UniProtKB/TrEMBL annotation:
UniProtKB keywords: Toxin-antitoxin system
Cited Gene3D superfamilies: Antitoxin ParD1-like (6.10.10.120)
NCBIfam families from the UniProt entry: antidote_CC2985
Family the UniProt entry places it in: Belongs to the ParD antitoxin family.
Protein name (Swiss-Prot/TrEMBL): Type II toxin-antitoxin system ParD family antitoxin
Length: 89
């Protein structure tokens, strides 16, 4: 596989090698790919978690366990205000 990089990316890779953190350009690229793999795993896990939470909400809604939007936003606003006050203390 051949990969073409922009001048900026080549310079970045070379600077990473120059710091001594990586022994070669290949190590820098492999580290970047590993980070991408990890990020994808995290996103996939979060996506699946959100799907489960949505299903819980749908099921609760079907049982009639709902709260009107104004109440929800008021509650969120109150929590946010409390956190701001705590952070300011």
């Amino acid at each position: 596989m051949n990969i073409s990089l922009t001048t900026e990316l080549e310079q970045f890779i070379q600077s990473q090698v120059a710091t001594g953190k990586y022994a070669s350009s290949e190590e820098v690229i492999l580290a970047g790919i590993r980070l991408l793999e990890e990020r994808e795993r995290i996103y996939k896990g979060r996506f699946e978690e959100l799907q489960r939470e949505i299903m819980i909400g749908i099921e609760a809604s079907e049982r009639g366990e709902v709260v009107d939007g104004e109440t929800v936003f008021r509650h969120i606003s109150e929590k946010l205000q409390q956190r701001r006050q705590q952070a300011g203390e």
